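Anyone? Bumping this.
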Amino acid sequence: DAEITQSPRHKITETGRQVTLACHQTWNHNNMFWYRQDLGHGLRLIHYSYGVQDTNKGEVSDGYSVSRSNTEDLPLTLESAASSQTSVYFCASSEGGAGTDTQYFGPGTRLTVL
Amino acid sequence: GIQVEQSPPDLILQEGANSTLRCNFSDSVNNLQWFHQNPWGQLINLFYIPSGTKQNGRLSATTVATERYSLLYISSSQTTDSGVYFCAVERSGANSKLTFGKGITLSVRP
């Protein structure tokens, strides 16, 4: 069965360190998204991609970057982790194009920055 | 940007009761989805419903796009329905990007 996975599921890091969160989907979807979830804010879009070599900034992109070198993966990098980036991070994918564009979510990564 | 408001913010039900969750949005939308986040944090897509009515078992949803709202109905609630329900919309022209409401926390008591 097709799926979307994230790793690691839990991560503790220190302020100033670079951190990369992995997202891998086997749906062969064109679109991929990264969100963060914080109490009182719901889910907010960090970065997104409509295909290989395409990346775009979302609502809360400062301090984050992504790259899309193939269809399956969209890693999220925190260049210099800050305590404000402590959050739960979700990756999602959707087929894109015309028709039903349902988003499917990964299990999430809980990141703590000390 | 588009505003998405969900109500009520919290809901407590006795098992077997019915409930209606509401989502209001401030602009025209191409896409509206309802998600359930279970107590383990997993987000599950319930409905893709930019307009009209859909049913899936005890759950149904209706979107009236011209009046900018959507309703999620839960009938004969079960403890496994507990969690947070999110409405997310794609503003017309936003090209697949979803804006989420803050969610409705549902607790179903046995």
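Late reply, but here is one note on the structure posted above: Residues 48 and 72 of chain B are 12 Å apart (CA to CA).
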